[in-house]
Each structure stands twice: as structure tokens, then as C-alpha cells.
Amino acid sequence: MEKIRDIMTTDVETCSLLDNVYEVAVKMKELNVGAIPVVDNGKLVGMVTDRDIVIRCIAEKYPPSSKVEDIMSHQLITVTPDASTREAAQLMARNQIRRLPVVEGDKLAGIVALGDFAVRELTDDQAKRALSEISQQQDQQPH
């Protein structure tokens, strides 16, 4: 069975607690990503997503100069590099998430995105199933 370490991205761009929301949004645009892990002294302490910026910053009328710490997601779902791809896909589907930080202890080791599953033949069905479950659950939420 394939492990997360086999498909995860290890060269992950991060931000710090001192960065402001505007800086992170610019970084997301430049990197064409929708989530950036927040790291403090190498330790994963949060995650900022494009959705966090919209819901917790703009919609709440926080200024773009607000600290990342004020809007980031603190309760993270993570996985270890030795977890199976099946476990990770199930975790993503169950928690309706498309990106999963990979940690060793409390240190960020990488990130795995739903798209990482899709490019691997062995896990293609797992990715389709996870995406289908995530999409179905999000479609059922009130708009």
C-alpha cells in the first residue's frame, strides 16, 4: 500500500504568525495555491486558506493588515508521512478538506492535496471517491 510520503509535496511555502493577511493573499496568488501553512519556529500552528480570508477577514471587516493569527484555522487535521494513502483519502473525505498537512511530531514535513492522489494510478479511485464525498457534502450545505 502506498504511503503519503510517496505522494506528498515537501517543498511547501509557509508563513509566520507575524505575516499579515494581505501578504499571505499575495503569496497565494503568486504561488497559485489556496492554502498556506502557518509555522512558528518550525512547528505547524495553523493554516490559512483562501476561504479563511474571505469568511474570517473580509466578511468580518478586518483590515488586510490583520495578523494571520487572527484568521487562521487553529484546529488542524493532519497526517503522518507513514500513513497510507487510503487513510489520508478517507480523512479528507470525512472532514471535507482538500489539503492535508503532513507532520512528523509537530513539525511540518509536507502537504498532500486531493490533486496529488489524482495523478497516481494506484490511488486514483481513492481521490475520486474523496472528491465526490467532499463535493456532495459541500453541495448539501446551505448557500
TrEMBL record:
Pfam families: CBS. Gene3D superfamilies: CBS-domain (3.10.580.10). InterPro entries: CBS_dom, CBS_dom_sf, Diverse_CBS-Domain. The keyword Manganese does not apply. The keyword rRNA-binding does not apply. Keywords: CBS domain. Residues 8-65, 72-128 form the CBS domain. This is Inosine-5'-monophosphate dehydrogenase related protein. It comes from Bacillus methanolicus (strain MGA3 / ATCC 53907).
